[in-house]
Amino acid sequence: MSIFVQNQHGHSLELCPEVIGEGAEGRIYRVLAPLPYHEKVVKLYKDIPKAQALADKIRYLILHQPRLREPDSVIFPEQLIYQNGQFAGFLMALAPGEADLNALCHLKLPTRLGPEWQSRYDRHTRAGMQNRMKVCYNLAATVNEIHRSRRFTFVDIKPENVRLRLDGKISMVDIDSIAISDGYELLFPAEKFTQEYSPAEFKELNLREDLISETWDRFSLSVILYKILFGIHPYAGTTRGQYSHLNTNEQKIAEGLFPQGEKKAHFETIPEPHQRFKELPRDLRQLFMNTFEHGHYLPARRASAQDWCKALSKKQARPYLLRRRASKKNTSPKPVSYRPASSTSHATKGLLPALLIFAGLVFAAIAAVNNKYERQMEEMYRKYGHQKVKAELTAFQEKMHLVNNPNFDAVWDFEAEKVTWVMKNKKMGLVDKNGQALTEIKYDWANHFRSGLALVRQDGKYGFINVKGEEVIPLIYENAFDFQGYVAMVKKNGKTLYINREGKVLPNVYHVGEYRENRATFKRKGLWGYLDENGTEVVLPSYDYAYPFHENRAVVNYFGKYGYIDQNGTMRLAPQFDYAESFSGGKARVRIGNDTFWIDWDGQRTSPPEGF
User: Fold this and answer.
1) pLDDT tens-digit map of 48-95
2) Cα separation values, 423 from 288, 294, 431, 437, Å
3) Looking at the chain, which terminus has fewer C-beta neighbours within 10 angstroms, N or C?
4) Domain of 72, in residue numbers
């Protein structure tokens, strides 16, 4: 028997009773009638009373969905759906795709996918790897578009929530579980997350209360890309010693046990697919290392979706092939085992000639490496000039001096102020370029320096230190975010506050946004204005909403219409648009009614940028 519901306009919809998709919260049904809705589906929540709390969130998603280059790359809600007078779910487009992305995340494709799929995504062919790269790029590009809105963090990105077509195009679903903010304050929390795709900080954050940074999504995205390329989770492997009790990927994520990183020696066995990592192009390897190794303690170091787009677009232009490994017939791949350094072999007879031959090969290899190094240095001198190369070489030598210091377990790259973070026994401290301690090695976590101050955490409390290692803002906050120019957001006793660089609370300011072009949005008594980099109000709060500056123009909302102001607060284009985007390259996309078009700085219609 058909199911009957009503949309937000009061129109009746007939649904096919057969469930075409089901999750923990709801079921998906096709729309049978009326005819214009044939390509639509409806998600009905299982727990209708509990779903009432989601109505405002779904309404927000309907009103604020960003304009995407590929409209079906993210399936947003389109209409609210009611049943028996109660909010019950939402209408959305049917996501195209013959499979979900999980099909590419294992060593073999499901047999139900025909030979065309098997051939197109074969990891051992140039075309197959190229097509997998295309899928990776499409996923990264979609995540990047959503992140650019500065409103949404997926939190629960996983292959099962991505539909895949044979041509490599993707559609992301389950968007109602996304976290929504206004850029500064959590508006609607994420509904769930999946631990094996979540970064280590998932244990410390409260999903229902804390503002989740997009650095969370960076980790999830990188896990999926690794699985697409290698068919295995990046943390898969059997650990030993002090970590021998860790059995799940999420446990190894929490400890930063990436098999390609510095803790590689803690693995008893590393599955064979990981061995192909070193055959990946260097820039892609580095993005994975930034995410899983350096980003374990410094989330801001994780590769962004935009970073992946840049790197993957180059690989699509210049194809490459992971070398196929020779294997004996009827022999399945075996994990690579690592023996403790103390292990010795009893087969020592006849080794001397072999060792002499090996030594000769080593010296020949060193000579070849030196020649290659000299050629690379000559190329760098030619391309960048003596001073820059000398500076890069000096920085490398200084870092290696610290890396070889037995007092440190890990060393990060130098900050601009010639200081760096080091680690010992899972604690972090600040040292200068000579390894002299500027702080005790006592912090549980630390971030990069921003505006001369670095955010640190010890025993669950946050504060800030300067480049001299002085705690200029004491560690008294339950949560804190990096300084954006003059202002930082902190949380104390459950209350969100904004402080200046001296640690003083800014009075009567309720929200402060990210600094762009020396301006930051702020909110007071429900209206928005702008601060300069010193925290001075340069545009008084008078707008219903205000967006960051781009190219000396900012979008503002005034009584439901959008316009543009300059950094002095002068209205350059009067509020007249129903939708408006920031300027980029002297052009911005706007909409009046159903008419979407591009304008220049003077508000005149112009052609869209290349690629649109």
Assistant:
1) 888 888 999 999 999 888 888 888 999 999 999 999 889 999 999 999
2) 21, 12, 10, 12
3) N
4) 1-94
